[in-house]
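tool=predict chain=A
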Amino acid sequence: MMIIVPLPRSIGGLFVIGRDEWIAVNDRVSAIIEAAPLRDALKYYLLASFDALLSVSERWRQSTYAELVGEAALAGVFARDAAHTLTQLQSEIAGLKPTDPVPERAAFTIKVGFASLADGATERLVKAAALEPLIADFVAQNRAADATIVGIGRSLGDQWRSLDGPLGDIEKGMIDLDRGWGNVVDVLKAAGLRAQDITMAELLAADIALAIQAWNELAQVAAGFDRRAASRSAVSGPPL
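tool=predict ok
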């Protein structure tokens, strides 16, 4: 049976990464930028790739981190809109049986309401697709740095401790964000195209209540990340 109701699935993975991991990442960024005046010595004695590492760190501080925070806020807005639209659809079919015809108002919600959501999800997908290679570059350069300074990172200070765990979580979270939005777009567009053909049996078989709960949970997760991140800028440090 065709999936009619979109679920956030993996979209929120990036926004539940722990406070300590963001602290470690932003501490590393600060250490790299602060070490810029010593780039020639660092390149010669320790990190031949320091220029590339500095470049992704400066971009992280100037834009990448802020864009991640912005995506959390926009994911929260979308999640609230999705929960609202699905709650509306739920009310429009309440009390009906599988053999009943789909009310016109419910078909309208699927056709028009879902189309509006699809547009919003597409915007998030486009942004996630643009961010993913930037995150991948940031992760790759910091992994290369970790491999070079393995065993001596602590002697350089806590800011240079290994980022293996945080980098893996951020990389996976970004990939999941991209894939999650892609899935939501596909489900919404497919349902919209079948708005006049979807049966009441299909609508009742779809767990709309579960979907509403999932989108509300994503809204809370995204808002929590946004609030923590807004409490301290990427320049001064990570989310609290």
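Helices lie at 19-34, 39-45, 50-92, 104-148, 164-193, 200-205, 208-230. Residues 232-240 have pLDDT under 50 and may be disordered.
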